[in-house]
Amino acid sequence: MAARQSKALNSRRQAAALFFACSISLFLLLVWNHRALPSPNNRGNPTHFTPHRASPESSLLRQQQQQHLQRPNGDHAATIDLSSPRAPFIAWPLRRVCAETTYVPGLTFICDENSGGPGNIRNYILTCVRYAVDAGATGLVLPRIRSRSADNKANLFREHQPFGYMFAEAHFRAALAAACPRIAVHATLADVPGAKEKAGRENRSVDRIVETVTPKRFGGKRAGCDQRDPNRHTDRFGAAFREWVRSSAAERGWAPTNDVDSPRLIRFSWGVLWDWPVYRDGPEFGASFGGLLKIRDDILDITDSIVASMRAFAATTRSTETAAGQSFLGIHLRTEADALSQWPSYENQTKNYLREAASQGYQGRAAYLASGNETETQKFGKEAMAVLQLVVKSKYDLLEGSPEELGKLKALSWDQQALVDFVVLLNSDYFVGVSPSSFSINVALKRHLKEEGLYTRPWKVGGRGDGRSWLVGRYDRYWEDWLFMFDGMWA
Length: 491
Description:
- The chain has about 500 residues and is of the alpha/beta class.
- It is built from 18 helices and twelve strands.
- The chain has helices at about 1-35, 55-70, 75-80, 90-100, 120-135, 170-180, 195-200, 235-250, 285-290, 295-315, 345-360, 375-390, 395-400, 405-410, 415-425, 440-445, 450, 485-490, and strands spanning about 105-110, 135-140, 145, 160, 185, 210-215, 265-270, 330, 365-370, 390-395, 430-435, 470.
- The strands form three sheets. It has a five-stranded parallel β-sheet with strand order 5-2-1-7-6, covered by helices on one side.
- Strand 1 (about 105-110), helix 5 and strand 2 form a beta-alpha-beta unit.
- The longest helix has about 35 residues, at about 1-35.
- The N and C termini lie far apart (about 90 Å).
- The relative contact order is 0.12.
- Residues about 1-10, about 20 and about 25-70 have low confidence and may be disordered.
């Protein structure tokens, strides 16, 4: 009997101990939830739960991570017109990406194997910079720009021009420093720390120690895909590339890459244009990244004069229900000598442009025409007047009353003048262009940012446009009709 009572007493004690332990566990769980979960007022903010006392170093790291993830005031960001060539650079989307990379001291990218018009040049540089960030580069040589022949526009491979040939250097340096402070921008290849010393040890010129690579060869195979297709392995590029940097150095008996005496200098092969899927890093990145490259201020100033003159002229034409006051139509006629034969012809472009102009209410109104073919510019103007009483103006027409500004315009090269056209078309009230011209597509995608800004959704390829722009073209075959450009074009 006594034994049974003792056993019952022990059972009660065990049950009480178990109840006490469960109560303590429940209490600790409630405390953990209170610390780990955000309050209702902070559901959108990143939180961190650290069960052990943090060191000063880890606290600083968390503060830096919070700063990288910090978004600007939403109302302020919403007021920025990202379709404007003078829009400020929004750094936080790129800052977030730069904070996530693994940096390799001494790894330096050279983004100068570009060619073509402003659309191609711009996209090559931006794509190269995006790869450089994922690779973990700590250096970037200020990109140079390949010029074309003044006599033969189809000859795209003449001497290199400095970055300032098209873009604002101070803006680029400041924007990249704000987003990626660990990436240094060097004026020339010879200015890369350790480059001259490394070249001297190998008894070669600095340019001869540059390694040329093709980024699509890192991260995964592309079996069955057309080589023009965007890179489908961007998520794996960074780690694969860094492993190649390490293993190739070991195979050659080189010292590990560093930023003192053993830099690795990387140049991409020609044609790395449409590789990176621009929405891969989120719409806010796709909408803001192109802001790294700002067109030079003097070119923008010339453009301001042209736009003001165009609007003043448009105000003198008769208004329609949908196009009134100073509104004007922007047109890109792509029929120059370097246009590919399979692209829409002059007749195809003209017929569709005039039909679209009529549907948008531009009968009897004014249009700005961007074209590098003076003969067909005049031809188009006559047809537009005959069909729609549409008065067509060029950049030269609009500066006839400003001899000083006209002189500045004529002093610019053919591709620099294309930048003038680019900006005027951004300012037009409605734009018609042609696919697959990278120039036209770039104009349309940049204009597409106006309504939704930082969170702009992708352009609907092959549709009726976005209400601000429309592109004539063929949209049946992804590669042959160059539709891959829409996936890899930075706005």
